[in-house]
């Protein structure tokens, strides 16, 4: 992937946008099927995909795992405000907790906002206890997700 391209260099036309939408829905869609969906030849679609990858527009192809299917029935959001001088320790602790699947370093009153999955509510306290010497926390259990991660194109 070329990192020297500027964002304005990545111009998306309607075909690029449609290809990205199709791959977002199913990253394993065969090139022949993508080509048929956009009315192009497979080699032309391959070239477009290569260009989208090189420009950084397409960064990864991923599998999406359903946490509930693995027994993780609860999702929690934990906001953390590090205690003085504990930033590096807190970040290391966050990285060591397998249940934390995503974490953002943010501005404002909090320093980090983490999303984690639990099999049972009893798993929450030990995780929070492991953080409590490094940060003040505020936790919310997610009831539903009205807006799932969505495509920006």
From TrEMBL:
The source's domain of life comes to Bacteria
Q: Which SUPFAM superfamilies match?
A: Dimeric alpha+beta barrel, Winged helix' DNA-binding domain
Q: Which PROSITE patterns match?
A: HTH_ASNC_1 (PS00519), HTH_ASNC_2 (PS50956)
One short Pfam name that applies is: AsnC_trans_reg
Annotated HTH asnC-type domain ranges read 12-73
Instruction: Give TM segment ranges.
Output: none
InterPro entries the record matches? ArsR-like_HTH, AsnC-type_HTH_dom, Dimeric_a/b-barrel, Tscrpt_reg_AsnC-like, Tscrpt_reg_AsnC/Lrp_C, Tscrpt_reg_HTH_AsnC-type_CS, WH-like_DNA-bd_sf, WH_DNA-bd_sf
Task: Provide this UniProt record's keywords sorted from A to Z.
Answer: DNA-binding, Transcription, Transcription regulation
* Keyword Membrane part of the UniProt annotation: no
Q: SMART domains from the xrefs?
A: HTH_ASNC (SM00344)
User: What is the protein's name according to its record?
Assistant: Lrp/AsnC family transcriptional regulator
Origin organism of this chain? Marinomonas primoryensis
């Amino acid at each position: 992937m070329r990192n020297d391209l500027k964002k304005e260099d990545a111009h998306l036309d309607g075909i690029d946008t449609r290809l990205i939408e199709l791959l977002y829905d199913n990253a394993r869609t065969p090139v022949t099927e993508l080509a048929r969906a956009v009315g192009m030849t497979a080699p032309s679609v391959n070239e477009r995909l290569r260009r989208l990858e090189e420009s950084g527009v397409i960064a990864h192809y991923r599998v999406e795992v359903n946490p509930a299917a693995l027994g993780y029935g609860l999702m929690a959001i934990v906001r953390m405000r590090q205690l003085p001088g504990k930033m590096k320790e807190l970040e290391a602790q966050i990285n060591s907790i397998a249940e934390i699947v995503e974490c953002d370093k943010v501005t404002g009153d909090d320093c980090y906002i983490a999303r984690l999955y639990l099999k049972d509510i009893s798993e929450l306290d030990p995780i929070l206890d492991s953080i409590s010497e490094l940060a003040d926390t505020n936790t919310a259990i997610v009831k539903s997700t009205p807006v799932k991660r969505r495509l920006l194109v």
